[in-house]
Amino acid sequence: MEDDGGSGSSSNLETGKAERSVWLMKCPLVVAKSWQSHSPSDPHPLAKVVLSLDPLLSDDPSSLQFTMETAATETGHKPKTYSLNMFKDFVPMCVFSETNQGKVAVEGKVEHKFDMKPHGENLEEYGKLCRERTNKSMIKNRQIQVIDNDRGVHMRPMPGMVGLISSSSKDKKKTAPVKQSDMKRTRRDRGELEDIMFKLFERQPNWALKQLVQETDQPAQFLKEILNELCVYNKRGTNQGTYELKPEYKKSVEDTNAD
Asked: Residue 68 pLDDT > 70, yes or no?
């Protein structure tokens, strides 16, 4: 007798590749956009991974060095070489895919997890790229629309609404100001927010979380996620309770200012 539950499960979930090892990598926004624009019909690879190993320290896990060299040929200051920092401990994960017909499949289990960052020799180029993106985000595209009906007909009160408007000052209710903390903040694009953060740290080296929330008008939790990647938190000293850029990002900001 067949088990209907087991049969239904196997028909909805393909597990043929469940044991295949895959890598999970967190990459910068500029790399993600470049790869998304890559045509599936293009036979050329997107990038290649280079593994360096010191044979004298083969037993030391830190002797393994991963770097990635992108094969993209776009112009601009986009770095071509990136460092892949491997996570030693992470929660076991699997990769799933789903087709337009709703077919779900297990594509493999995550064997290694990496954090992709610009290589040291490309920090100057990456700093220029951040500056270009910041300048673009600061441009306000304003449009002027000409109103055909310039007699103000559409701005006049409609019939039946005049009686609803009281001219007595006693009947007018003052609108209570909305506190900034009560307003729902909308998240910006992550790449755009990173550019703004770099610009703020150019203005001063140390910021408290409350100050950054006021400057960027972004949710505190969303800011913390970006700050944990870009900054270090000072738990003691004269700058206690503030964030400052990590050394590798400080260099890119200094290079940008030098230009």
From this structure: yes
Cβ atoms within 10 Å, residue 193: 17
How does DSSP assign 178-200, residue by residue?
PPGGGSPPPPPPHHHHHHHHHHH
Compute CA 207 distance to the chain's CA centroid, rounded to the nearest angstrom.
20
Cβ atoms within 10 Å of 133's Cβ, excluding its own? 19
Over residues 133-145, the pLDDT tens digits come to: 777 777 777 677 7
DSSP state of 105: E
How many Cα atoms occupy the beta-carbon half-sphere of 92 within 13 Å? 4
List residues bridging with 114 in a β-sheet.
25, 86
d(CA 214, CA 112): 38
Render pLDDT for 217-230 as a digit per residue (tens, 0 to 9). Answer: 899 898 998 898 89
Compute the half-sphere exposure of residue 170: CA atoms within 13 Å on the CB side of its CA: 0
Query: Residue 113: which of 45, 190, 22 has the closest Cα?
Result: 22
Pair of tokens at residue 237: 């000293």
**How many helices (H) does the chain have, and how many strands (E)?**
7, 9
Euclidean distance between CA atoms 256 and 127, whole angstroms? 6
Q: Give, in degrees to the nearest 5, the angle at Cα 30 between 111 and 28.
A: 35
Q: Would you state the structure tokens that stand for residue 188, as one six-digit string?
A: 């910006």
